[in-house]
Fold this protein.
Amino acid sequence: MPVGRQRTLVGGPKANELAEFLLQLGSRRDLTTARSFAQQFNGNKSLWAEYLNGSQVIPFRRLRQVVEYVCGTDAKKRELDLAHAKRLHVPAIAEERATHASGGVGKAQVADREMITAHQLLTDAQAILADARDADERARAVIALLLMMCAHAQNSVHHLTEHNSAGHAQIQQRLADARLNLGRTERELKGARRRLSVAERARKALQREVEEARRETERLRRRAVGAALRLGENDDTAQRHLFPGRRETVLGQEGDLAHQYQGLERIVGEGEKLAHDLSIIQIHTGSLGPWSRLRRPLATGLALTVLAALVAPVITGFDGTGPDGDKPSPTLAGEPGTMGGARKADPCRLLDSASLSRFGTTRLMTDYGEINRCDVVVVRNGVEVAEAQVYLDAVPAEFERIPVRTVGNVTVASFPREEDACVRIIATADRQQIQIIGKQWDTPAPNLCELADAATDHAVAVLDDGPVPRRSEEPSQDSLARIDACALLDAAALRHVPGVSARDKHPGFGRWKCEWSSADGGSRVKVEYSRDDLLKDNGEPADIAGTTGFVSPREDGPDSCVVRLPHRTYTNSHGNPTIEHLQLTAHSPQPSGRLCDAAEALTAAAAKNIAKHITEK
């Protein structure tokens, strides 16, 4: 209940819940009484009193006005509050209708309320009519001013036309020269496109050669091992005789991961030497066909068999990720269309604000939201109306009954537009994904799917030349980006949410997010790092481990509590202060107050581990 006079709720459960939400909204702008609501939004004070005590459900139009007034220019908060308002309003209306149908409210009372509502609508209409008349007068004044400006502009054009007539011939000559240069440029462009087409066909042909070489390598390796087996040796003996010392070099005596890393470094060097030798063989033989047609098949086959035997144990025992989840697959490292190491991948270098300028004034936002996110904001008439968001995600993409297209080494899926978002997903060559979202914040917004497609086309072009570009700078020494989110909570801390297991954890991209859950999935705890320019509008302030955090019950659903705790403040690339913070979300079917107490305790435990990590560094 907001601060102010204690109010008795007299409606049904759903109506009372809506009334509590209305009071909470009002308290954020010092609206705590029916009189204050009536003065701010017009209308009868008695009617507002019924809205606030639950005896009558507030019309959604009125509720929207309150949300928009309370949230001001914070589009993200307005969106969340409106969604919550819809979830509360629908069941409250249904409850009210059910009550009327069952005779819970007398006919006279219903008639009185309908009369009050009609009177309120009439008052609103009169106020709107007065506003419309004022707007009409202002519009007429603006039109008169514009007509005067048009007349002045016409006079200026006439004067300039007369003044410049003498230079008309010179302008025509320059125009002719420009057309000549344009023709030359178009011819050069056509030739460049032809050369690009030839190069693309050559690249595809080389890819086919590589695949055929890999198949031939495996066939030769199996033939060599089979020959040794026919001589009476077992498989391990055959491997040792054919490739002496290599298995121990790669796997070590116990097959441990450290030896695999050391062996991999040796293999990379030897692989480069073998590739160089094979290229020389190609030059001398003059062959561009399949490897099986080389004039020296024995030497080439042995070289490829050695390389396959060296690499095969590493591939089967190494999944492409190190202990910190930040090492790319060695078989795809540096390849076009791959994600590469998570913590080095820069989502902002997949975006280009200039390529989206046709949708409005654009601005690249490198320091908002999650660390693996980057935005380009679209501004129209001074208002942020939309944005193109890029998220990097390590989860493999799966598409069912979704249109897809393949471009180079990546697959692009186009999802149908939702109410205020349009999603595209790029599945990378190393089985990760890049989400590109066209998001609407205000009107008039551009076509969201066209915005998402334009951002996707640029990202695909970047990935056609190589992997996701790397970050140019290391994070600050005290940044959360250096800390493993899964190391912040242990089994003792997670006992605050019954059923959640420390063993059942799911690290996110770059290990900047981590989620733990119960066996049935009914209870969850999620920790993630994020950035914002302001936190005080994201919940009620609370002291957490000596720092002012912000607690928001039911923000992520009815059985949820979100806690945000600032970690550090720095200046972003636009010169504005940015708050890097820890965000913890707890889900559990228990009373909101108890769940938020548990979320605060978990956040305090995470904060202590963050401080310990930075001190050790």
Notes: Residues 263 and 419 are 52 Å apart (CA to CA). The first strand starts at residue 361 and ends at 365.
